[in-house]
Amino acid sequence: MTTLTTSLFSDVPDLEFFPDSHRYRYRGQWIKYSITQVISDKTDAQMARIMSTKHIWEPRGNTVHACLERFLLHGDPGDPGDYAEWIDPLVNHVMWTRWEPVAVEMRLVDPRHSICGSFDCMLRNKDDGRLVLADLKTLGNTHSKTRDISPQLGGYLNLADQCVPNFPVVSRCLGIWARPGSVELTTYETQDSITNYLAARSLFLEKQRELDSQLDF
What we know:
Structural class: alpha+beta
Largest sheet: 6 strands, mixed
Low-confidence stretches: 1-6
CATH class: Alpha Beta
Helix content: 25-40%
CATH topology: Lambda Exonuclease, Chain A
Number of strands: 9
């Protein structure tokens, strides 16, 4: 694995991220929504169940993401702590012999709709130069199932197209699923991902307008 020395993309000027609150600010204005909020189809009850186990999945996700970021930038994942079962198969996966990072943890903004998000990595094929946009997910056990994350990936593409001049063609989107002891890859068509995101965004913004109208009295 080689160290990332060049990137096709630059940071978006005047876009700030505050990790403690997980909020973004663009040109001095706080951004209202995240990609994750926009594409979520969970009910309040489902979210409550998910948040009840946050103490389990949050430190795992944070650690595995941090180790992948360090690996992509410097070729060394660092200390995996309690999550070596997830990180070792991830950084030793055969995909890294064919793909190299050209952007890592890039923050993006859609100022018109006040939406922000950060993609995990953009990868370039070492042989033919094809680009894929990838997002890392961690799964709790060997039997955990993957899910459709195309709307999230499409959201990153939509924002990147607004933020990056002459944004290049991305051939596919990729989900990287880290389980204890193994890694699974899922692929999504680029245009399908964008279409799925725009549909989710339309539903989300319409719901926000309805909520706002209820307060307008």
